[in-house]
Design brief:
Layout (H helix, E strand, L loop, with lengths): L1 E2 L2 E2 L6 E6 L6 E2 L5 E2 L11 E8 L11 E4 L5 E5 L2 E7 L3 E5 L10 E2 L1
Antiparallel strand pairs: 1-2, 3-6, 3-9, 4-5, 6-7, 7-10, 8-9, 10-11
């Protein structure tokens, strides 16, 4: 990922993720769209795509989808786009095609 003339290199176990565009919206079982601004009783985890990883990230690779708590996120804006920086230990699950076909597709 580039930022003009400078590239971003994540350090330690940090992970840079791109928020899913429709992650805030969800549909009820009846098909009703529930906007992100609607209050929810329980905290809801969020999926995002990994764009960059630090050298000490072990279970996550670029392109994976990761599940994390949006309450514990740090946002950064690069060229008008908002990204999230996480520590690998703050990731609850990883979904990737590279995982064993016999598994659930989640690395917990």
């Amino acid at each position: 990922m580039g930022t003009g003339a400078a590239a971003i290199k994540m350090l330690h176990d940090r992970i840079l993720v791109e928020l899913d565009r429709d992650a805030g919206e969800r549909r009820s079982s009846g098909g009703i769209v529930i906007p992100a601004t609607a209050a929810m009783g329980a905290r809801r985890l969020q999926w995002s795509r990994v764009l960059a990883i630090g050298p000490h990230a072990r279970a996550v690779e670029i392109g994976d989808r990761v599940l994390f708590d949006p309450e514990d996120k740090a946002e950064v804006e690069v060229h008008g786009e908002v990204y999230v920086v996480l520590r690998e230990r703050d990731v609850h699950a990883v979904a990737a095609e590279r995982l064993d076909a016999g598994s659930t597709g989640l690395y917990l």
